[in-house]
Task: inverse folding
């Protein structure tokens, strides 16, 4: 008998941001797989096996999840944020593509509050006008593609949500990204640094892109470079509806 | 004594996609304001006044919400999806900007599952790589800005989530948008038409942009034009992580 595979988003950190359908899926699961810090957010109980793995093992984890589901288990793969935004959903479908024997498995993707929505809400409405989301990790795409997209996004005057801006193994890309956006004439735009939103470690600050420093971001930070019309009102930052 | 103003996202339709923090805010509210179909999703109870209004009255509604909060009420302004994505949060901050006497009010924005995340999850992971979100309504921005952004988004090879593609009062913009994207060389890209996601009226279909017809969208549809690397696996559509 075949099991089920659910790819679920846990939101940015707070339990108050986990949707009821994700909570229900976790309560029925026999196996939960994911990057260790995300699996650690799932409450252990009898009948549930937790499989924590390293961040770099997405395809291996996805394949293991498919295999367990095919064996009849009720499997949940957890991501933080939304599983479809720079997270596990694409990895599962990549693994599925190479495994036709599993194409008829019962699979569901359950959306979650992705980091940029959590961050935007905390500081106002910086994504209230047209925007884009760019993953700054060049583990899986050429840096030239990232540069091109940053330039075009600046030219389009999109709000720009930057995921995975900086890590210990990639200290230089974000420095270069800030330079590219300044070269594109965006120095006066506001840059929001939102770290560990909705967790006890939450920190959020905003400066002009001119004053932004690479060290303001780490691997737990989501950066939003606002569009040129975005402004402050009191302690808030928002993109007017009529910009552009 | 001052009240509170909460700007909350109800998600795309299903109660299973409403976050616990939004449910908690609604359970404490004295007043809920919003576009009538969204207010209709809130369960009436003693002590709660529901204020339904027309879709075109965002600033009037925002000002009324601020006024009620200043009078000591616990006010929730509801949007579908996420309030910060083409919804009420920007309108509230616009109204706040013109009313310094209210700058110290206690305001919170509570994120929600925005339409593109709900739609993407239903069909796979079409937003698994870099993407953008464009509001096709030209009520508040010039059509030339929309055209420019569509062209740049196609050049960047972003997945493109199109909000408010078509309405009775704006039948032609989406037709033109499809032409622009085809002119930009995107005819072979997949286009996903996701209507009323997570409601009983849900309908989702995908065709190549070449075969997309304007009538496939209405005011309840979210359109995702996928990036050039996005492909089908079984009944799913996903953007590979290594695209670009």
Result:
């Amino acid at each position: 008998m075949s099991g089920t595979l659910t790819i679920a988003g846990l939101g940015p950190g707070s339990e108050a941001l986990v949707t009821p359908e994700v909570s229900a899926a976790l309560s029925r699961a026999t196996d939960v797989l994911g990057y260790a810090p995300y699996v650690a957010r799932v409450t252990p109980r009898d009948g549930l096996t937790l499989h924590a793995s390293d961040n770099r093992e997405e395809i291996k984890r996805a394949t293991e999840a498919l295999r367990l589901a095919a064996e009849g288990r009720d499997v949940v793969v957890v991501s933080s944020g939304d599983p479809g935004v720079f997270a596990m959903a694409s990895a599962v479908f990549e693994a599925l593509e190479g495994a036709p024997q599993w194409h008829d498995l019962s699979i569901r993707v359950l959306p979650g509050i992705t980091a940029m929505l959590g961050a935007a809400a905390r500081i106002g409405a910086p994504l209230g006008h047209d925007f884009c989301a760019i993953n700054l990790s060049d583990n899986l795409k050429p840096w030239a593609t990232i540069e091109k997209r940053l330039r075009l996004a600046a030219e389009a005057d999109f709000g720009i949500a930057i995921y995975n801006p900086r890590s210990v193994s990639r200290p230089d890309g974000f420095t270069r990204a800030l330079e590219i956006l300044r070269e594109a004439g965006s120095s006066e735009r506001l840059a929001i640094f939102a770290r560990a939103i909705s967790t006890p470690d939450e920190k959020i600050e905003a400066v002009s892109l001119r004053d932004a420093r690479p060290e303001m971001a780490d691997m737990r930070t989501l950066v939003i470079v606002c569009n040129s019309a975005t402004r402050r009102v009191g302690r808030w930052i928002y993109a007017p509806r009529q910009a552009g």
